[in-house]
Amino acid sequence: MVSAHGAGGGSPRRFFGRELSPPPGRHWAYTQEKIDELIDKKRIVLTSTGMPRVKRYADEASMPVPSLWTDLAVINSQADERVDYATQKPEALIDRIIQASSNEGDLVADFFCVRKGTQVWRVDSPPEQPPL
Fold this sequence. Notes:
The chain contains 2 helices and 6 strands; from the N terminus they run ββαββαββ. The protein has helices at 32-40, 91-101, and strands at residues 13-15, 18-20, 44-46, 52-54, 107-109, 120-122. The protein has a two-stranded antiparallel ribbon with strand order 1-2. Strand 3 (44-46) and strand 4 form a beta hairpin.
């Protein structure tokens, strides 16, 4: 939202020919000149409620994609994939690393036996498919 910064009352700004006041207790994050520039570049859109919002693109992100993956389950004592290897990693983690670092159709060799034996997979092949 264009108004997402700062507390305190702010003056109205013009968006697409309409003068809009910021929400109560807020002020607009941009000057009128910057708003006009963003409108000219088609970077400000109005939401269904009529509030302005800056259109952002993923390749312009100011923050990198997070490197902390908290959605992967750990290998507990009851896990089917557990082989009691001290530094065993979840297969979902290995799959994600392979997907992130290879292209569809690539061959991936598992020389360190992280998948219950030295095998080779074609990227995007289902786990139940026999190795190549």
